[in-house]
């Protein structure tokens, strides 16, 4: 059974709904992984994951950290979409254990087939858990989210195939395809929640104006990017990709302008979302310039997306969703505002300081760890304790 009735909810709050273990586990893992990565680069720590440290870093920050948060968010959101109780109790424990074993498998003496199985089984199982209530309620608007999850699993399998064959190029293609697929999910989910949260957070109860042409165009362009990476079409500069990236930069900028309201700067739960999504613009613009022949490192654009965009949006969404689904007021202390700011500063250091100073990488790691540490410190009791309003979940 993938779902349980509400009256069969587990006594321990941690296993009551998907966001709890995956938000907590994912943020703790990201904190550990960044400290290990930075420590090894600084020469103060040693680590020998299977396949090498770079392969581990590439895979785990996306398919370990980001995927955990995506799973927690979607397994929680589907309950609201469908009205069917979400995954909880022992099925949720089993899914979380599989994710945890995948993280540990890099450092265990396991046969290659077993490691790949542990790594590659998680996303398909999340997709199954997500698809059942969506199909049962015939929520056709949410079918693409299940498809995106399965495509993300395919990107992970491509990465693992590169790991098995010792093909670094294939690994890189799989990771970059997966990263831009997460960007597509950011486009879909951001388009749904950022304008809604913004208007509600500022006391405006009227619906946000619908712009279906803009949302669909962003989605189509965003889906084309991971397909081009998986096919190896981005390995050398070309005019078509320059045009596509430039067009997406403009589309994301238009969305941001449409969502903007002056009052967001008073509300950390709002400006954090807008700033995180804003990194989509320089990420796309940077790659447009690289494909146009400008001497710019594509790694800077990738880290603009992964650190500023992906991680920034993850921390902001975890903060907001955790409050809403535990019955708490949608306000955060100053420390969480600093957590949001520190993640944004980590992105600035990684993108703008690293090209000029080698110390920028260490600074970026420390800032990101500080932001994640503040989040964990404040939200640990929130995620471990029952809802304050007595409701299930």
Automatic annotation (TrEMBL):
Keywords, ordered alphabetically: Membrane, Transmembrane, Transmembrane helix
Record protein name field: NnrS family protein
UniProt keyword Glycoprotein present: no
InterPro entries for the chain: NnrS
Transmembrane segments annotated in the record for this chain: 21-41, 61-78, 90-107, 113-131, 143-165, 177-197, 239-261, 273-294, 300-318, 330-353, 359-380
One matching Pfam family: NnrS
Keyword Transmembrane (UniProt): yes
